[in-house]
Protein: N-acetyltransferase domain-containing protein
Organism: Malassezia psittaci
Amino acid sequence: MLINRTTVLVGENVVLVPYRKEHVPIYHEWLQDETMQQLTGSEPLTLSEEYEMQQSWHDDQDKLTFIILARDQKTSETTLGSLLESSPMAGDVNVFLHRDQENENGVEEEGQTSVNSAVGTTWGELEVMIGAPEYRRRGLAREALALLLYYITANPTPTPVQQDHEPSALPLKPDHLLVRIKADNMASISLFSSMGFSQRKFIAVFNEVELGVTDTKRLWCKKPDKVLEWLERT
């Protein structure tokens, strides 16, 4: 999260904010649900372990995580303080960065993607979760993904005006994006398909399908209404 640790993306119905310590209790509560664990492929953690995980993600340059806030449509205020006060947590959206690596025989190691690419290419693996049941099936995951896709592929990368640097790992090429989804999670497969992703392979050992972007013109992105800065506390 070193890349986006102070970046806030404001959309029409969602606000994406960096995953911070104050978000951990609610996030931890979401992941106590067994169905959510199965859909996300995650193991249950104690609250203490969840805080440790948040800190490790915060310090990791290869993990880019936003908490999805449901933006209150009754207020027109767009200052960070007003948005945080009026927008409850709804879920999270992530991209995990990794580089293709080949073994000494020039063959991809087990677990690596099978797409054709140059060694050393940076890939982004996407995930999205609406953890709060009351905010599911309201289009929040779709808009959050669209904002994230714009953020990680736009050149230049949208950053708060106060920042004097740009994230070095971005932008990513649209055809270097992928998502792995449980084969029976039809809602998630349908969501990513509607965003311009298509199935590339089936991973039988994990009962997962891998989707990627084969036609970059079909990728649906959405430019944020505003990009704000969330100053880190010392």
Observations:
- The beta strands are 7-10, 14-18, 63-70, 89-99, 122-130, 177-182, 198-203, 208-212, 226-229.
